[in-house]
UniProtKB/TrEMBL annotation, chain A:
Function: Binds directly to 23S ribosomal RNA and is necessary for the in vitro assembly process of the 50S ribosomal subunit. It is not involved in the protein synthesizing functions of that subunit.
SUPFAM superfamilies, A to Z: Ribosomal protein L20
Name under which the protein is recorded: Large ribosomal subunit protein bL20
Keywords, comma-separated and alphabetical: Ribonucleoprotein, Ribosomal protein, RNA-binding, rRNA-binding
Gene Ontology molecular functions: rRNA binding; structural constituent of ribosome
Gene designation per UniProt: rplT
GO CC annotations on file: ribonucleoprotein complex; ribosome
Pfam family, one: Ribosomal_L20
GO process annotations (BP): ribosomal large subunit assembly; translation
From TrEMBL, chain B:
Any GO MF annotation of the entry: structural constituent of ribosome
Protein name: Large ribosomal subunit protein uL13
InterPro entries (UniProt xref): Ribosomal_uL13, Ribosomal_uL13_bac-type, Ribosomal_uL13_CS, Ribosomal_uL13_sf
Gene giving rise to this polypeptide: rplM
Native source organism of the sequence: Wenxinia marina DSM 24838
Subunit structure: Part of the 50S ribosomal subunit.
Length: 120, 153
């Protein structure tokens, strides 16, 4: 039986890593050893940031809702507004509220008015 | 549903003018910083320059509470023994009183490139004249927003 050499397998394995490292700086895109480290780290960041993305967007929605609430009524803040929503039994989530604030200001103000009345 | 992201076409930069006479410095700076960043808009997008252009007049007449007028500000000239200081009160009575407001606002903004760009949209004037009537700035009354804005003690 003829001897099996590992060359093609190694080449394929290396190519996979180097392809993933395309566009990286200097040896990070050319040398297998460095590229493997760079790709491993990049994957770690990607895994972490898929989770962080959810928090980042929620934070952005909150900032937008706060801006819309404060321009609707100076005495109302994000915190008091959310408290009012809970009392009024309105279960619209922050993502939709932020979208309403941008695209449907009147609808948002109607909700804000209900939240304010629930607090009084 | 995709979260809205402002593009340059969505951004409308207004001009506003604020009279700083008798207004507490930090409270003024926080309002100015918020306006410069655009955090008062429901379309706020963190990486876009979408704040208003802000004009501050009477910046030499801002209110400082406590003993902050006597607080020294230090800098180093680079020469040996070149440490110098000037109190905030001295700066307010000196040649460039508007720098007090400038610095207060600058330090309330994040330390990134975008905030340096946003600082260029702030104009601070010591006197009551701003000479920017062509921009038709809208006046904002900070004094009446909150009674603490004009605290004297």
């Amino acid at each position: 039986m003829s001897r099996t050499k590992g060359g093609t397998v190694t080449h394929r394995r290396h190519k996979k890593v180097l392809d993933a490292a395309k566009g990286y700086y200097d040896r990070r895109s050319r040398t297998f050893k460095v590229a493997r480290q760079a790709v491993d780290k990049a994957n770690q960041y990607a895994t972490r940031d898929r989770k962080n993305r959810k928090r980042n967007f929620r934070a952005l929605w909150i900032q937008r809702i706060n801006a819309a609430v404060r321009s609707f009524d100076e005495s109302l803040t994000y915190s008091r507004f959310m408290g009012g929503l809970a009392k009024a039994g309105i279960e619209v989530d922050r993502k939709v509220l932020a979208d309403l604030a941008v695209h449907e200001p009147e609808a948002f103000n109607a909700i804000a008015a209900k939240a304010r009345d629930a607090l009084a | 549903m995709k979260t809205f992201t402002a593009t340059p076409a969505d951004i409308e930069k207004k001009w506003i003018v604020i009279d700083a006479e008798g207004v507490v410095l930090g409270r003024l700076a926080s309002i100015v910083a918020m306006r410069l960043r655009g955090k008062h808009k429901p379309t706020f997008t963190p990486h876009m320059d979408m704040g208003d252009n802000v004009i501050v007049i009477n910046a030499d007449k801002v209110q400082l509470t406590g003993r902050k007028r006597e607080k020294p500000n230090y800098w180093h000239t680079g020469h040996p023994g070149g440490i110098k200081s000037r109190t905030t009160g001295e700066i307010l009575e000196g040649a460039h009183p508007e720098r007090v407001v400038m610095q207060a606002v600058k330090r309330m903004l994040p330390g990134n490139r975008l905030s340096r760009q946003q600082m260029t949209h702030l104009r601070v004037f010591a006197g009551a004249e701003h000479g920017m009537d062509a921009q038709q700035p809208e006046s904002i009354d900070v004094k009446s927003m909150n009674k603490k804005n004009t605290r004297t003690a």
